[in-house]
Specification:
Belongs to the ABC transporter superfamily. With 277 residues, this protein is an alpha/beta fold. It is built from ten helices and ten strands. Strands 6-7-8-3-9-10 form a six-stranded mixed beta sheet, sandwiched between helices. It has a four-stranded antiparallel beta sheet with strand order 2-1-4-5, covered by helices on one side. Bound molecules: adenosine-5'-triphosphate (ATP).
């Protein structure tokens, strides 16, 4: 991957708008349309750099696997079942041992930090399942999301409602009564309540219909436009690559192909092997 970085290498070309939910790099993002991707991976805002490791004392699942994302970008991890996509995401979030390699956030080595400490550093993580409190209302879920904050959360909640208007309508309803796609919006909204510097989503569209998937991807693009870097694992590779600034195809815990979403969609080998021709 190579890039033509101009004014601000952290901005993408979708025309970011500043809702000040996340503050990558500690500052407020401003729009800088027309700027392309930041391609210098080693200096990425969030990077899992040549990670090797596995679960507990088990065998290595990841083999020198590198995943990175910059503010304003959507980076997507795709690949066959069991390729280690979720494992790579969990490694970046500190849920398993990285025996070799490192994880860095905004230039700081966080490899040895617990997931809780990473949340305090600005990582928002939305797991694939059990990501909401079903018996609590939508609004209570959002309040729970802000658990690490001691300041006034109302402005952030309004921003979340601005991004996900349906949640405002349903704010007094138990989250468990919502549709699958709406519950995923609650989960993403909950993560945004910490004002994360980076948002990580593990298969946000798992189990939803194609129409709901499109809607969720639209919402994820909206979040990205606020400047928050988004790293996500997706089963729906083709659709995910369509909205990806960066794509990582993993095979057996290794980086098999890396490029912009467009590059990967156009790559003959990627198409044949991973996208059904
Ligand atoms: N908690 C765990 N403990 C031990 N091994 C695990 C654990 N979770 C996953 N694995 C193993 O790690 C490998 C990669 O799994 P992972 O879930 O990361 O793949 P994936 O690419 O996300 O797959 P899928 O698309 O099917 O979700 C698999 O061999 C799996 O059995």
């Amino acid at each position: 991957m190579s890039g033509s970085d101009t004014a601000n290498p952290y901005q993408n070309d979708r025309g970011n708008k500043d809702l000040s939910i996340g503050k990558p790099g500690g500052g407020t993002l401003t729009a800088s349309p027309g700027t392309k991707h930041a391609m210098n991976t080693s200096q990425a805002f969030l990077i899992g750099d040549t990670m090797t490791g596995g679960y507990g004392n088990g065998p290595d699942i990841l083999h020198a696997c590198t995943i990175a994302v910059n503010p304003g970008e959507i980076a997507v991890i795709v690949g066959p079942n069991g390729a280690g996509k979720s494992t790579a995401m969990k490694a970046v979030f500190g849920m398993l041992n990285v025996r070799q390699g490192s994880v860095r956030l905004d230039g700081e080595d966080i490899t040895d930090l617990s997931p809780q400490a990473r949340v305090a550093k600005g990582m928002g993580f939305v797991p694939q399942t059990n990501n909401i409190f079903a018996s609590m209302t939508v609004e209570e879920n959002l309040e729970m999301g802000a658990f690490i904050r001691r300041d006034d959360i109302r402005a952030t909640m309004e921003q979340v409602y601005h991004l996900f208007p349906i949640l405002k309508d349903k704010r007094r309803q138990p989250a468990g009564e919502l549709s699958g796609g709406q519950r995923q919006q609650v989960a993403v909204g909950r993560a945004l309540m910490t004002q994360p510097k980076v948002l990580m989503l593990d298969e946000p569209t798992a189990g939803v219909s194609p129409i709901v998937m499109d809607e969720l991807f639209d919402r994820i693009i909206e979040v990205s436009r606020t400047g928050i870097p988004i790293l996500m694992v997706e089963q729906n590779a083709r659709q995910a690559l369509e909205i990806a600034d960066k794509g990582y195809v993993l095979v057996q815990g290794r980086n098999a192909h890396t490029g912009t979403g467009k590059e990967l969609l156009a790559d003959e080998q990627v198409r044949r092997s991973f996208l059904g021709g």
